[in-house]
Amino acid sequence: MANTQYTVQDGERWDTVAYKAYGRADLAHIIIAANPGVPITARLEGGTVLDIPILEETAVKTDAELLPPWKRIF
After folding, report:
1. What is the pLDDT of residues 6-42, one digit of tens each?
2. Whole-angstrom Cα distance, residue 40 to residue 45?
3. Which residue ranges form the domains of the chain, and what is each CATH number?
4. 49 phi/psi in degrees, rounded to 5
5. 21 near 67, Cβ under 8 Å?
6. What is the largest CA-CA distance in the chain?
7. 20 to 30 Å CA-CA from 67: which of 9, 20, 37, 48?
8. What confidence tier does 62 reach under pLDDT thresholds 50, 70, 90?
């Protein structure tokens, strides 16, 4: 999997970085896993450089795909 890098602005959180990278805050766990040397804190230190995995389109599920089949609207 290819990565890109992102430099954290002071006070950003994991979820805000994920939202900027993927448009979804709930994918922060992917960025956390790609950066094992960065402490998991409420706020990231400004200037920290994070590796951001580039996801294939099929790797990200839509909201409808996350619902059980009986709750999906077709």
Report:
1. 999 999 999 999 999 999 999 999 999 999 999 999 9
2. 11
3. 3-71 (3.10.350.10)
4. -100, 120
5. no
6. 45
7. 20
8. low
